[in-house]
Specification:
Layout (H helix, E strand, L loop, with lengths): L1 H19 L2 E4 L10 H6 L1 H4 L3 E11 L6 E5 L6 E5 L15 E13 L1 H15 L12 E13 L1
Parallel strand pairs: 4-6
Antiparallel strand pairs: 1-6, 2-3, 2-5, 3-4, 5-6
Length: 153
């Protein structure tokens, strides 16, 4: 009976450590107040250059270097890229589907057609998909968070 109880306790602990533990990436999170991703997406210029704390599900991960994650918005179909400096933080593919609390600086940049085509090719390569340059119809404003730290739950 004693050995069975010990085994149950050990298996329970192993399960919690493997599936329930938080994993921290990069710098420690310093902000307390969360900003909704939908608010950033609705008015990006007012957040440009500002440090924010966002929360949401990880809907995609860079397959090539783990250098970014896409965080799902609080509103349907919205997501924001959380890009980290290459080699500083590496997100494993297994974080996809988990929730994150992430802090960084909002970046709003305007790109020409040529820049968008080059970026589209690179992103498609990272995501393991094809890219059709004819889908780029004009200049675009790109919104992302320059990631500093994240906690994945």
């Amino acid at each position: 009976m004693k050995s069975t109880m010990s085994l149950v306790v050990l298996l329970s602990l192993a399960f919690v450590l493997a599936f329930g533990a938080e994993k921290k990436y990069g710098k420690k999170i310093t902000l307390k107040e969360k900003t909704k991703i939908s608010d950033i997406m609705a008015n990006p210029e007012s957040y440009d250059g500002k440090r924010v704390l966002v929360e949401g599900p990880i809907v995609d991960v860079c397959r090539e270097r783990g250098c970014w994650i896409k965080i799902g918005s609080d509103k349907e179909f919205g997501a924001l890229r959380f890009k980290v400096e290459d080699g500083v933080i590496t997100f494993p593919l297994q974080v996809k589907g988990k929730n994150t609390l992430a802090e960084g600086i909002v970046s709003v940049k305007k790109y020409s057609v040529e820049q968008l085509i080059a970026q589209g090719k690179e992103t498609a390569k990272e995501e393991g998909r094809e890219f059709d340059p004819s889908t780029v119809k004009g200049p675009k404003t790109v919104l992302m968070i320059k990631g500093e730290g994240a906690v994945v739950k």
